[in-house]
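**Reference record**
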Amino acid sequence: MGGRGSARGVYYGWAILLTLSVTETTSWGILYYAFAVILTPMTRDLGWSRAQVTGAFSLALLLSGVAGLPIGRWLDRRGARLLMSAGSILATAMVFAWSRVHGLVPFYLIWAGIGLAMAAVLYEPAFAVVATWFVRRRRQALTILTLIAGLASVIFTPLTNWLVHAQGWREALVTLTVILGVVTILPHGLVLRRRPQDLGLLPDGADTPVPGRPVPPPVASVAAHAALTSAGFWALTVAFILSALTVAVMSIHFIPYLIDRGYAAGFAATAAGLIGLMQLPGRVLFTPLSTWLPRRAVTVAIFLMQGLALLVLLHAVSTLGVLAYVVIFGMGNGMITLARATLIAEFYGPANYASINSVVVAGTTLARAAGPVGAGLMYGWFQGYTVTLWALVAGSALAGIAALVAETIGPMVGAEPAGSGEAEVARSGAARTE
């Protein structure tokens, strides 16, 4: 065929990928990163404590993790088009409501709505779409998506700060409401499609069958129940939960740790910002490393990188040591984001990706919500961060072991263990249509 599915045309999956790259950048920038900028002027204006305000943000994260479970099943059965369009409408309405809020209870209700919107529009549904439209080029496509969306904080943190100074925090949120609605609602509704087969295409833009030519086999996918009851899945989930716990703790406590060690607050803030920037080269390197080296080695190494970075930080006696931590930790985080997006599809196939991945997301979300609080308690108990950091080093080592176990016994696509429920395989080409 000489249309969108072949080399003679532009594969429609690339249009979907470009659309998601833009909408993810905007959604992350406004629903996640803008909060930190709005926090100080809003608490000053309304007289609320920082704990009261950040509690709403934690509530949103928790609800996004819980909502991910039914949303995963919806994605596998009906696709992302309606879900992400409705999520964008809800997000836009909630950001505008945030701009008008005066009471603490309505504020929490608004952020509960934002949490549900997060589950519908952030990375997880986007990853599910990419896993369906790309197979051979999945890692390349996910790298592009996360590289572009990784600029969300770079773009929207200074933009939000400028809007707050120019308009005040309430009108800044109104402006962000307009941006969010324009950039996400119609693109999700007009561009997204469930599967390439619905448009007569094959994943990656491969040519559709021609009489007399071999027909490519359908992509194998493991049934959700079989994956979720396998030891390999839970080993992989443990690895991601421990990693998310470490990232959450360090994202909140890294700056206070440096200040406690005598570093200037300005340097600490700059170093924290560089961690996010260093995720980008990590994501760029992930795909070629996975090509040059065995996947098992790459998977284990990226989890161990977090522990290595923490060891460097524990023994750092100069600015150079802190910067070494920033580079190693940031690049490791960037790679783990892509690993979480790709390994589920590579282990279990694309047909039930969202349902399987939603369980991982629920666990990692709970870890992100609980980690900073637990680290704060340990800081008080042990009069400092040293014990906490050593505990995170141990957790990173355990994550590496869990990843090794997952890579050893976890991949199920193409394998049919005798007498096991893991032999239950669904073919993505026979999945229900939207």
The chain has two domains: 12-205, 220-423.
